[in-house]
Design a protein that fits this description.
This protein starts with 9 loop residues before the first strand and ends with a helix. Helix 1 crosses helix 5. Helix content is 26%, strand content 30%. The protein contains five helices and twelve strands. Bound molecules: cytidine-5'-monophosphate. In the N-terminal section; belongs to the HFCD (homo-oligomeric flavin containing Cys decarboxylase) superfamily. In the C-terminal section; belongs to the PPC synthetase family.
């Protein structure tokens, strides 16, 4: 195919962590850097797609040709994804917080009565929502970070969340914040080991694979 194989396609990408406020100055979060999701957004844009990147709080420059929507919480990320539909492609890379707290309206104080109780509520699963959506994108891709039984867990996740593909990472190998990773692409046909590779290369390979999918090339 030509240099812009995804021209005319709209891709929705989520990236980064979410921050769930506890009070006006504190939050529950995680160490996701957003690098992998931003690299995927860049690669899809380079392949000609119109890209909407819904980004949690990260310190990264917006890739060329990408429309970025900044959000803080999981519920804001979900609303931004919903508003971005319809899309042909969804690649959900964000490390969404599984739980949120009920945020106190004023800063919690050490008043001698001990630590405040944190009552947590489960956040919506954005990928599962998109995977089972009435306006489901034609191709839905999720990520899975696992520390054991990588293929079994990621394959189960693919079915449960209604994803076509899962990019599965063994995070016991120390990929957080790193520029390198080791992934398996899990499709209906089974797992493909992509070997140890830079995150940048995963982004380019995935974009190429997505382009081939729409092209009809096996
Ligand atoms: O269940 P787990 O967090 O391992 O699933 C990871 C995949 O699901 C990633 O693609 C992530 O972006 C997505 N996810 C989501 N919303 C959540 C939790 C995970 O979109 N609340």
């Amino acid at each position: 195919f030509g240099p812009k194989p995804l021209a005319g396609r709209h891709a929705l990408v989520t990236a980064g962590p979410t921050h769930e406020p506890i009070d006006p100055v504190r939050f529950i979060g995680n160490h996701s850097s957003g690098k992998q999701g931003f690299a995927i957004a860049a690669a899809l844009a380079a392949a000609g797609a119109r890209v909407t990147l819904v980004a949690g709080p990260v310190h990264l420059a917006t890739p060329a040709g990408v429309t970025r929507i900044d959000v803080m919480t999981a519920r804001q990320m979900q609303a931004a994804c919903e508003a971005a539909l319809p899309a042909d492609i969804a690649v959900m890379v964000a490390a969404v917080a599984d739980w949120r707290a009920e945020a106190a309206p004023a800063k919690l104080k050490k008043d001698g009565s001990g630590p405040p109780p944190l009552s947590l509520t489960e956040n919506p699963d954005i990928l599962a929502g998109i995977g089972h959506h009435a306006r489901r994108p034609a191709l839905v891709v999720g990520f899975a970070a696992e520390t054991g039984d990588l293929i079994a867990h990621a394959s189960a996740k693919r079915l449960k969340k209604g994803a076509d593909w899962i990019v599965a990472n063994d995070v016991s190998e120390g990929v957080f914040g790193s520029d390198h990773t080791h992934v398996q692409l899990i499709t209906a046909a089974g797992p493909e080991d992509w070997g140890p590779t830079p995150k940048q290369a995963v982004a380019e390979r995935l974009a190429g694979r997505i382009a081939r999918h729409f092209d009809g090339t096996p």
